[in-house]
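Running this now, will post back.
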Amino acid sequence: MGYFSVEHIEESILVIRDQKVLLDSELAKIYGVTTKRLNEQVKRNRERFPQDFMFQLNDIEASFLRSQIATSRGQGGRRYLPYVFTEHGALMLANVLNSETAINASIKVIRAFTHLREMVLSHTELSRKLDILEKKYDSQFKAVFDSIKLLMTPPEPPRRRIGIRQED
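Update: finished.
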């Protein structure tokens, strides 16, 4: 429990089932409550959380997530599949928790989701404008447009090799 910046929240947002979501455990930290308390409030107010606000991960998604963030598998680990919350679900959760901490933190959560959405929109708009310019000008600028498109393409993350490595 403590201070969380918008940047920290942005880094915690995951894309699952083509939706940007936050894990119940992450929202619990942000809102200053335990995951157990957060999920109890959700169960007491289930009608406020339709499927587009919140959903529970399936076994495959949870297993993949566990491998990505190295969550505990031994004692003290989760005994149920985690819930994830969309932007609207995170806001509804702050209303259900109804604490000053949750309300203040929800503002940052909404700002994080909004910032990510704006980044996607600006990238889409920039791509659209570049396509229009490319069609408008002749082939002498093709190399310039190709270079700009290359710069706009996000780099692929480095892959770690699996197996035993020999030292040189």
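The chain has seven helices and four strands. More later if anyone needs it.
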